[in-house]
Each structure stands twice: as C-alpha cells, then as structure tokens.
C-alpha cells in the first residue's frame, strides 16, 4: 500500500511548481514534506489528493486490490491549506457533520469525539459556537475533523501554523498517536523542530525539485559526519581564513574556532592539510546539525546551483 510518485510535473503558465519529482511514501510512516514558500508542496499535495491533475508523470496507490491515481476520499483524512469549518455551528455540530460525511456511526462518534476533545483540552467547549474559539483552538477542531473516521492516509498541510508552543507539542503527540494507530501521515510543515521530533522520512523541495530525500536519521547522521568543528591554539590568521572560505563553507564561531561544512564532493583528507597550515589544532570533532540548519544549507546550495545554471 505504498504511494509511489514517478516523474511528476505540474506547470502553471510560466511557473514550474513540481519538476520531475519521484519518491514514495511507505505505509505507517510519518513523511514530512518540507520546503520554502512557493517550493511546490501544496501543488504536490493537491495532485496526491486528486484536487488537480499532473501534467506528466504518475501517482500510484494500491489498496485492497484496487489501483488509484490519487488517494481516494474513503481512505483519506485531509487538513487543507485553506481551512473550512462552519463558524456559526457548535463544535459538536461541526464534528458531527464531518463524521457523518465519512459514515462514522453515532456510538463511535461520541466515543472518538470525547477522546480527542479531551486530548486537546476542549471538552468543556463542546456546545460552544466554533467562532467563539481562538484561532489556534479552531485549528485543533479542524485537525480532529480530519481523522475522526480513522482514515488509512492522513495529509496535513501546515498543522502547526498559528499554534503556541504548548499546542504545537499537543499536535506532536496527536500525530504520534495517529502513527501508533497505523495511519500513514504526510505532513507539510515549516517548523523543523517539530518535524525532527516526528518524521520517519523527509522530502525537501525547492523550486519544485527534490533537494533532500530519505530517512531523517540518515540525513542527520550524514550532516553530522560532514560538519566539523575545529579549535586552534591561537587566533586564526585572517589570510588563511579567507583562503579556506574560497573552497569551503566556513563559519567563524570565535577567534580560534571554526565550523566547516563539507559539500558533497569534498573530503576530510583534502581539508585536513589546509587546517594544519592555519595553525596548531587543539580540538577537532564532528558537530551535530539541526534539521533547521541542514534545510537552510541544502536550499542555499540548490539555489546557488540553479543560479549558476541560468547564468552559464
Ligand atoms: N493556481 C496557481 N496558478 C498559478 N501559479 C500557482 C498556482 N498555485 C501555485 N502556483 C505557483 O506554484 C509555485 C508553487 O506553489 P505552492 O503553493 O505549491 O508552494 P508551497 O510550497 O505550498 O508554498 P507555501 O509554503 O507558501 O504554502 C509558486 O510559484 C506559486 O506561485
């Protein structure tokens, strides 16, 4: 029951929103779809849920002997980019409406509704009109509507937006629980600290292209292997520092301390002689990188590559 995306493309007049994208999402995982504003995440999600059609390439999903070219409604729980609930109706009426749409029985509805409202500290608001809730609390109700019918696939477009840190943590717990219940979650988000807590695998998009794709643990490990912290006994000579910067991605942390991030084609063997020529090294170690830092670096490198391509 994997979702397999092959060579997918989406163009809008002059814009290429999704460019020859291939990846898969495995059952039961939390898959994070990342990328700067305009990277193509929503365009991709809209094709995956069947709201728009690809210009070329394919989306394949097999379930119970049936083949689909997008995730069908009966398997899907979706939190769209543009939220849509009924502000005048009560929380209960909103939840009941979406549960009924998905064929949830009354007895199951009450039990699930009580459970999730308690999880989100909203039990006492059951009969209040939705519009009387704060924006963040309305967002939590929208999240509940997306999963009350226990779909196999859950797609959440920016579930953390507008939430305070406490509620962000509640959503992290919520997502971990969906995974525990066997749902497959595709999550589009800008909060890397939250993604780092949750995701099994990630796909980072930039300008419609895949920039980073794979198991989060492998990505973090490989970034750590490529990031080196060096401390020298004496303050660094500025001329040597500038020479190093011509070839490597270097950050001067203190007068005697540098952090160097190796690019794909660069090796430690090449770097070491240059470091030794700068001065006497007193500390040398790999440095863990946050997903936030890895993201910034990968996008900057990809943008530089695309700029080079256009100026050649
Ligand atoms: N209906 C449309 N018509 C024309 N261009 C569009 C349309 N929808 C998206 N685009 C363009 O396609 C590109 C990708 O947009 P998309 O909304 O998919 O990005 P995103 O990664 O979801 O961004 P964000 O994080 O800001 O939501 C952007 O350049 C956007 O302007």
From TrEMBL:
Signal peptide: none annotated. InterPro entries: AAA+_ATPase, ABC_transporter-like_ATP-bd, ABC_transporter-like_CS, ABC_transporter_ATP-binding, DrrA1/2-like_C, P-loop_NTPase. Keywords: ATP-binding, Nodulation, Nucleotide-binding, Transport. It comes from the Bacteria. SMART domains: AAA (SM00382). It comes from Pseudoalteromonas rhizosphaerae. Gene3D superfamilies: P-loop containing nucleotide triphosphate hydrolases (3.40.50.300). SUPFAM superfamilies: P-loop containing nucleoside triphosphate hydrolases. Residues 3-232 form the ABC transporter domain. It holds the Pfam family DrrA1-3_C. GO terms for molecular function: ATP binding. This is ABC transporter ATP-binding protein. PROSITE patterns: ABC_TRANSPORTER_1, ABC_TRANSPORTER_2. The keyword Nucleotide-binding applies. Belongs to the ABC transporter superfamily.
